[in-house]
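chain below, 195 aa
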Amino acid sequence: MYHTASVLTNGKVLVAGGLGSGYPEVANLYDPSTGHWIRAGVMNDPRVWHTASVLMNGEVLVAGGYEDPILHSAEMYNQSTGLWTSTDIMKDARDWHTASVLLNGKILVTGGYSGHNMTSLNSSELYDPSTEHWTTTDRMNHGRLYHTASVLTDGNVLVTGGLLNKIFLNSAELYDPAVETSATIDKMNKAQSHD
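prediction:
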């Protein structure tokens, strides 16, 4: 449980991390053409409550999560070689965050839980695959974890709900990648979390 499943550009499904018996750093691939599972290498860090994003070049960025302590590490899976390689670390250690592949190819990571003073994060970061580096971007107006982040057809990212230090949120905000800013928008009719 708490693993990720990513549909790769070759049609296979990469399942990475999570809680359970065995070795949580071991990844697996499902091949729908054969109906069989195979090993997909060993991640550098075992992790749960992380994110996995399929990049435009077909690689998979796995970021953050928990492995005691909360992680700020990130790594890439190359479907051609089957290898995992470490990449630049995030500025903030976080789990229960979101990761969105933007239309410009960058990855937007928002919110999550830091474990420090039981804090819901309002920070956001961008991963640029062309430079393999993270940079901070505009903070959200509310700290939140267990929230959702959806890339809209215009390229903006709609961030909704979640928890702020055990308070359910009905707030929503819109991140604009063109100017790298977040703005509050109309609240949802109902506070929601764990969606």
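Residues 1-82 form one domain. The CA atoms of residues 138 and 179 lie 9 Å apart.
thats it, cya
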